[in-house]
Recover the amino acids of this structure.
């Protein structure tokens, strides 16, 4: 007789997901996960979103996680099901996105026999997850799932995979609730709990004595939660220090604020990069000195004292040596800095850094984001600017694919809140944006979700438009259609003598008809006079929309620090010529 | 070409690299060795020697000792990366401890042809106090332990004897902070 306190592995999984307050799961069924799908059939707390390919599930889970601050969850079958999510897991690892991937595995006794749809899942995903498990004993399942959620969301977040053989899904055991599990601290790695008082004091002293300070803020600030952004705004307002953010830091500080210098890095603002180059005090808040940000390392901010707040110990001194660092949570650290300034009544108002701001304002006069919009052909920059102007009164989430359109979106769309900007930064995964929009819309059903796309990236996961239609998700695909892999074309123009090898996207579908065939809506703007109407129409339709925006085919993304160049060697427009020596060196880089 | 790279690659770092012995305490669970070896190969670090054994059955802990090459900055990064792995309790560079002890064990099988060679071998064996494990007509097996450097010297000395055949196995260094 069955013990009534015992449940199957599949039921234990669902009980654990319920206890973890998971309400949405993205997945695709298959032989090795059928017991779990059977358990999903008989319940109603968990909404399953059927994607059209597993890559869609993992990016949707990323979009869900980024836009909600919660852990994204996906369910895939063994073999091809799980190999299809390898790109997304790597993407989540690079961009520190908390997701839990449940994968089915062939029954335990068949592991190692090259069974049908068998693969070495934990072997394949080991380097692209924060941690992974193969659960061979059903009595360990509850503990494993709860630990997986804890690891995914603690410290520097990341993807965790749990591989469950089919026989374990059928086998029975007791369910162990979260509160009865003894999490071991060394496995969770949540960072130090106590803020380093010395660090805070040193930082405030350096702020008092600096002439040219700058905040350099990255995705860590986002991962620390919305409170981190509040504390950051408070600190910036109190100190009047200019702030620049990385691609992932966008939204942590209001983009329209006068203290914001915008994004820095390869396609960052001139004033942001110059300020980084000339500052005497750099305060890095959850950024990792990525190569897209630093440019040539030996010329990176040569005269500054560097402070680094990062929960990940391995980010400290990895690429750039810093003078002071702390491995504590950003919210707590910023709070402590604010409290220290207040409780010691430190007068920072007198220190208005007027010379520094004067210098920055001179750089701003270069108007590095200036472009000329003519009467006919739509400039891609203009398309994003108009999209921003026409949607910024609504709570809008922007996802992107990867390439020129992504950089233009980062440059011309101004974010005022965290978690509204969802993009693939570290890995640069084309095909990310559409499924990510599906995830973001699931998490935020009443908000406007737009995937700013290029036509080439969009084609990589185009099947997910069916998912959006099935679940009535009114996501908008805003394609800057230039018929090229734009960023590839730009590099070929700048570094390879305009030999456009294989970067022209021939035989494109008619995106309007394509939308219609999926039972979505297609709209199109061919010239600038149609643009606003098309954007307004797109926003007003309560269904998935593909907007095909025909933009200038030869437009390049500026400003640009070419690979191998330093911050102060930015190219502002196509008329700027690159130092030929740098060009040769840059060619070998990515 | 490497000087023009924006990436600080370990290959560059080898220019000022020195030998370090890292001692890593881990949960003894499936895949832990693969995680560590994968981290080294994936990030371009070098493993000169590696030793893994369970050291605490009750708490299910293993100690992994890794000999690696790299400049100080790279070694610090390796330690930070190791400590990010979920089953890793701690990773320590033995050189950073105020006092640590290091040892390695080596088994050497030597085939010789004549009395003169035998005498020379015996002589080195005496000097290095290696233990005879087995001796037959023209084959002798020694066990020698100590620091890796000591074993290297013993092997160098043996190699000065011409015409003998040497086969050996080494445990790689193990170490302990005191």
């Amino acid at each position: 007789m069955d013990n009534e306190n015992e449940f199957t592995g599949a039921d234990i999984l669902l009980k654990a997901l319920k206890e973890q307050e998971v309400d949405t799961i993205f997945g695709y069924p298959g032989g090795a996960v059928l017991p779990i799908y059977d358990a999903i059939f008989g319940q109603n707390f968990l909404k399953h979103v059927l994607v059209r390919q597993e890559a869609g599930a993992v990016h949707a889970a990323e979009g869900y996680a980024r836009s909600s601050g919660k852990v994204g969850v996906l369910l895939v079958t063994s073999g091809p099901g799980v190999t299809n999510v390898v790109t997304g897991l790597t993407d989540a690892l690079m961009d520190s996105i908390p997701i839990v991937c449940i994968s089915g595995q062939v029954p335990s006794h068949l592991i190692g026999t090259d069974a049908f749809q068998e693969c070495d899942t934990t072997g394949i995903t080991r380097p692209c997850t924060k941690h992974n498990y193969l659960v061979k004993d059903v009595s360990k399942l509850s503990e494993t799932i709860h630990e997986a959620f804890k690891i995914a969301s603690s410290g520097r977040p990341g993807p965790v995979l749990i591989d469950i053989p089919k026989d374990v899904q059928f086998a029975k055991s007791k369910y162990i609730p979260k509160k009865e599990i003894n999490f071991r601290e060394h496995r969770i790695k949540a960072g130090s709990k106590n803020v380093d008082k010395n660090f805070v004091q040193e930082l405030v002293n350096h702020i008092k004595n600096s002439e040219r300070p700058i905040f350099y803020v990255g995705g860590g600030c986002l991962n620390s939660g919305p409170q981190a952004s509040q504390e950051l705004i408070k600190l910036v307002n109190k100190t009047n220090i200019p702030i620049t953010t990385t691609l992932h830091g966008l939204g942590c500080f209001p983009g329209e604020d006068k203290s914001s210098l915008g994004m820095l890095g390869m396609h960052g603002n001139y004033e942001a990069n110059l300020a980084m180059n000339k500052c005497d005090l750099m305060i890095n808040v959850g950024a990792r000195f990525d190569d897209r940000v630093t440019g040539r390392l030996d010329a990176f901010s040569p005269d500054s004292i560097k402070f680094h707040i990062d929960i990940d110990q391995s980010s400290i001194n990895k690429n750039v040596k810093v003078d002071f660092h702390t491995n504590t949570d950003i919210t707590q650290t910023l709070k402590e800095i604010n409290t220290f300034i207040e409780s010691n009544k430190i007068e920072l108002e007198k220190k208005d850094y007027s010379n520094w701001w004067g210098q920055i304002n001179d750089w701003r006069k270069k108007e590095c984001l200036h472009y000329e919009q003519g009467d006919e052909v739509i400039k891609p920059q203009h398309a994003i600017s108009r999209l921003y102007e026409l949607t910024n009164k609504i709570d809008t989430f922007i996802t992107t694919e990867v390439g020129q359109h992504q950089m233009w979106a980062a440059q011309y769309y101004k974010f005022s809140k965290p978690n509204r900007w969802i993009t693939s930064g570290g890995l640069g995964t084309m095909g990310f944006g559409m499924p990510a929009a599906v995830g973001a819309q699931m998490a935020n059903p009443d908000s406007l979700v737009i995937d700013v796309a290029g036509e080439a990236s969009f084609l990589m996961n185009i099947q997910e438009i069916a998912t959006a239609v099935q679940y009535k998700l009114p996501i908008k695909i805003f394609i800057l259609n230039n018929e090229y892999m734009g960023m590839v074309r730009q590099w070929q123009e700048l570094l390879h003598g305009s030999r456009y090898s294989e970067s022209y996207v021939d035989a494109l579908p008619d995106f309007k008809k394509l939308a219609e065939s999926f039972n979505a809506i297609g709209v199109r703007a061919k010239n600038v006079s149609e643009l606003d109407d098309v954007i307004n129409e797109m926003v007003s339709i309560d269904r998935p929309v593909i907007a095909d925006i025909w933009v200038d085919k030869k437009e390049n993304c500026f400003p640009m620090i070419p690979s191998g160049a330093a911050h102060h060697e930015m190219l502002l427009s196509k008329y700027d010529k690159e130092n030929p020596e740098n060009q040769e060196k840059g060619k070998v880089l990515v | 070409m490497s000087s023009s790279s924006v990436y600080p690659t370990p290959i560059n770092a080898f220019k000022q690299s020195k030998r370090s012995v890292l001692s890593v305490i881990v949960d003894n669970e499936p895949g832990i060795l693969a995680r560590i070896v994968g981290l080294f190969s994936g990030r371009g670090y070098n493993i000169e020697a590696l030793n893994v054994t369970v050291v605490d059955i009750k708490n299910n802990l293993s100690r992994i000792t890794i000999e690696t090459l790299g400049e100080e900055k790279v070694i610090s990064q390796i330690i930070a990366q190791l400590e990010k792995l979920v089953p890793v309790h701690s990773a320590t560079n033995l050189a950073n401890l105020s006092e640590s002890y290091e040892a390695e064990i080596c088994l050497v099988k030597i085939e010789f042809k004549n009395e003169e060679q035998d005498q020379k071998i015996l002589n080195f064996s005496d000097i290095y106090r290696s233990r005879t494990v087995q001796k037959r007509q023209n084959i002798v097996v020694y066990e020698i332990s100590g620091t890796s450097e000591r074993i290297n010297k013993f092997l160098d000395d043996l190699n000065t004897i011409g015409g003998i055949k040497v086969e050996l196995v080494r445990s790689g260094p193990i170490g302990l902070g005191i």
